[in-house]
Design goal:
mainly alpha; about 65% helix; elongated
Length: about 325
């Protein structure tokens, strides 16, 4: 053919086509996602320890088939595995368990609820213990604030379980213990006061929760008495009143002995309950004069410290 501009003959091996003749090739449509395949990918991610990725696969699978009970259960188990003291996902796990029961047949409801409660307790109780150990390992105001936030998550999760299983005594006792622990606060922290404590509003809220659950526990345990708990920094117990300093080594020594050893025995728990009832009034009497503080030191504090030190020496042998 001849060029229309210069008149030179040119050879075109393949005739050019105008643009409107060009057919654009569209990519082939991807096959729709398969819930079973996504569940399988989730299981692979769990085996590799990639729990967040596994949850993403399971969420996509549930978008396709929200009525699959096993996918809901897989998500609940995965969320449990992904929970750590500084990354708690217990409430999400409980919602996944609820989704499984909502999708299940009536005859499976009881078994699923039993599985939910047992797995939640098996996870939540050790996690709370781990949270306490983290706090004790590095006591500080920031660690205390983080711990209180973690405990708020534990309390919310325990409350969900309690609503579903109101007669579970272990859950009721757990709530009372978490509230008591938060109210008592943290001694030995690296702060100017030497302790960390919740504020007045939080204490009021915790006491209301504690009172409500204590009343419920009394139904299952006749004779149970509401524990007398004092917030950190309030000098009301005898040893603190005697020494005049909540961070005094004698006070810390006896408190640790109470929390780690005395509480393990029925006699010890009975003594603690008595001390919580009578201690504040006795401490107020002790704090009124130097003579009373001196007498309390000779008759109570010094013998108690000597006994605990002897116990600790025997324990380390």
């Amino acid at each position: 053919m001849t060029c229309q501009y210069c008149g030179i003959d040119i050879i075109v091996r393949e005739p050019a086509r105008p643009a409107h003749y060009v057919q654009w090739v569209q990519p082939a449509a991807q096959p729709p996602a398969n819930a079973a395949n996504l569940k399988r990918l989730g299981a692979i991610a769990v085996a590799a320890g990639n729990y967040s990725e596994a949850c993403e696969y399971l969420d996509r699978a549930l978008e396709i088939d929200p009525g699959d009970v096993e996918i809901w259960l897989s998500k609940a188990y995965t969320l449990g595995l992904d929970s750590r003291p500084l990354h708690l996902r217990l409430r999400e796990m409980l919602e996944a368990f609820h989704g499984a029961r909502a999708a299940a047949a009536p005859e499976r409801q009881a078994a699923l609820l039993k599985d939910e409660v047992s797995k939640t307790k098996a996870l939540m109780f050790p996690l709370h213990a781990a949270s306490k150990e983290l706090l004790r390992a590095a006591p500080s105001s920031s660690a205390w604030e983080s711990y209180v936030q973690q405990c708020a998550h534990y309390l919310a999760a325990a409350n969900i379980v309690h609503r579903r299983v109101p007669d579970d005594v272990e859950i009721i006792e757990f709530v009372i213990e978490v509230c008591r622990d938060n109210i008592e606060g943290l001694y030995g922290a690296s702060t100017s006061e030497g302790y960390c404590a919740v504020d007045d509003a939080t204490e009021k809220q915790l006491r209301e929760i504690m009172e409500g659950y204590s009343a419920k526990l009394a139904v299952f345990k006749p004779g149970y008495e509401y524990p007398m708990v004092q917030r950190a920094g309030k000098q009301c117990f005898i040893v603190t009143a005697t020494m005049g300093d909540p961070t005094h080594p004698a006070v810390v020594l006896l408190r640790v002995f109470r929390d780690e050893h005395l509480v393990r025995f029925s006699v010890g728990r009975a003594f603690i309950a008595w001390y919580w009832r009578r201690g504040p009034a006795l401490a107020r009497q002790v704090a009124k004069s130097k003579a009373r503080r001196s007498a309390a030191y000779v008759l109570v504090v010094a013998p108690a410290v000597a006994c605990v030190k002897a116990f600790n020496r025997c324990k380390t042998r």
